[in-house]
Amino acid sequence: MIWTGLDIATALSEALDKRPTKSPIFFLCSEQTHSLCLNLIEMAELTVPASHIMTVSDGESAKTLNTCETIFHWLQTQGALRNALLINVGGGALCDVGGFCAATYLRGIAFWNIPTTLLAMVDASVGGKNGVNLGHHKNYIGTFQTPERIFVSPYWLSTLPQSELLSGWAEVIKHGVINGGKHFQQITKVMPSLSDQQAWLALIEWNIKTKSRIVESDFTEAAERKLLNLGHTIGHALESWSHNASEPVAHGHAIAWGLVIETQLAIDVSPNREETKALQESLLAIVSDIYPEIPFDLEDIPQIVNYIRADKKNQHDTLLFSLAFAPGNCHYNIAISEALVVQVLNDFAHDSH
User: Fold this and answer.
1) Are 197 and 301 contained in the same domain?
2) CA–CA gap between residue 90 and residue 83 (Å, rounded)
3) CA distances from 3 to 75, 151, 211, 224 (A)
4) Per-residue DSSP letters for 199-231?
5) What value does the CA radius of gyration of the chain take, rounded to a whole number of Å?
6) Which domain holds residue 242?
């Protein structure tokens, strides 16, 4: 069940009152959301022991098996049994690792997600994917397990730096490309003002509906759900590569440029090259206006390609992409040669400009 609205404290309190059993409640938050979590608990007038609130590191650094082991020991030490409820309060990485731990601790306990970043609201906390990274390989270990409840509110957006909003906006762009029509037009406009919570609520809701519709038709990503990987094959590779470079690139930043670069791939296999070129030009204008170029060099391309080879969607030695050929016209399982991938990456490399 996904709740969207403005008064999240009342919604949380009412949902907890409706639980059939008053089992122990545990809150997992990040360093950045610890104070927000405490404020929410206070606003909802909940009585939660301090020992039932755990803080882990922020962002991708939390998505490790070491973090999971720490969380498992915390739950065990606090006497959490199968009737326990874990409430994850944070961004996409926090919801990923919290959901994974809940899905595997004692073979599964209930969990709720309260996403606090735009990225988590429109994408990461919805869809039942939970997991952690294996080294620099994104989400290699995980489960499909849907949260019992998700509480989504623009209430949190005013707490975010601009960089976090931009990271989430990349997924909004992706959903606009998948939907086409009025939603594609939406992504050509500037983001709403943070003071306009109703505008943000409407925007978040159509993004959730987009993802939920696709997930419901293909929960385990055997077919249509692969469309949600638009921009992610190259985007994840750039993100992983950047963690070995001097300046790691945020997830949304990498996905935004992944969308642009992958649409360049689509041009070469498109049944209507001019239509796809128009899409690529539109995406390039949108992305380059708000996201700096990712400064990889020609010498970095072999390492980036290694990450692309390791993408979970590939089969045997075949590189498979989800590609957009026009707004609202997207397809998955598109085989692309490694030579074409290298050629396109060469075009976008920093020292080829």
Assistant:
1) yes
2) 23
3) 26, 5, 15, 25
4) HHHHHHHHHHHHHHHHHHH-TTSSSGGGGGGTT
5) 20
6) 164-352
Q: What's 305's domain CATH number? A: 1.20.1090.10
Coil, strand or helix at 154: helix
First-last CA distance in the chain: 48
Instruction: State which of 160, 176, 210 marks the end of a domain.
Output: 160
- Under a CB-based contact definition with an 8 Å cutoff, are residues 323 and 261 in contact? no
Domain edge (last residue) among 107, 136, 160? 160
Q: Is 165 helix (H, G, I), strand (E, B) or coil?
A: helix
Residue pair 138/96 in contact by the 8 Å Cβ criterion: no
Same domain, yes or no: 185 and 321: yes
Total structural domains in the chain?
A: 2
Interval 187-203: pLDDT, tens? 998 889 999 999 999 99
> Rounded to an integer, what distance in angstroms lies between the CA atom of residue 320 and that of residue 306?
14
Whether residues 280 and 314 fall in one domain: yes
* Whether residue 247 sits in one domain with residue 202: yes
pLDDT tens per residue, range 78-98: 999 999 999 999 999 999 999
In this prediction, residue 58 carries a pLDDT of 82
* Mean pLDDT computed over 49-63: 92
Task: Give the range among 79-83, 125-129, 179-183, 243-247 with minimum mean pLDDT.
Answer: 243-247
Q: Name the average pLDDT for the chain.
A: 93
Contact present, 83 and 57 (Cβ < 8 Å)? no
At a CB cut-off of 8 Å and minimum separation 6, what does 18 contact? none
